[in-house]
Amino acid sequence: MASASSTSARSLFVESKIRLADRVQVNINNIASLTRQIQRGSKSNEILMQAARTFAQQEQGLESTEANLKKLSLITTHLEFQLNAIDQSASKLEEVTEQVRAMQR
């Protein structure tokens, strides 16, 4: 009888091990499923993609702004040259006006 009860105990132990392993596997699968659901629910992938798109747009905007600043710098330089030319012409105009007045006397 001792061997029958030990065989029965061994069989019960093996069966318990198998059930425990099955339950652990089910729990792992449930955790994986829950993790996927949380990830889908959080929309983290979409948020990351939107952030990447926004970053790329910002880069294009910065490049455009830099190009516009260079153009403005060139325009400023040209305007300074023109202002100097106008100043020189104005000073010469005063001299010519004085010469005309002197000739009229």
TrEMBL record:
Keyword tags: Lysosome, Membrane
A single GO cellular-component term on record: lysosomal membrane
Taxonomy, superkingdom: Eukaryota
UniProt entry tagged with the keyword Membrane: yes
Transmembrane regions listed in the UniProt entry: none
Major localisation: membrane
Subcellular locations according to the entry: Lysosome membrane
One Pfam family it belongs to: BORCS7
Keyword DNA-binding: no
PANTHER family linked: BLOC-1-RELATED COMPLEX SUBUNIT 7, BLOC-1-RELATED COMPLEX SUBUNIT 7 BORSC7
Similarity field: Belongs to the BORCS7 family.
Protein's name in the database: BLOC-1-related complex subunit 7
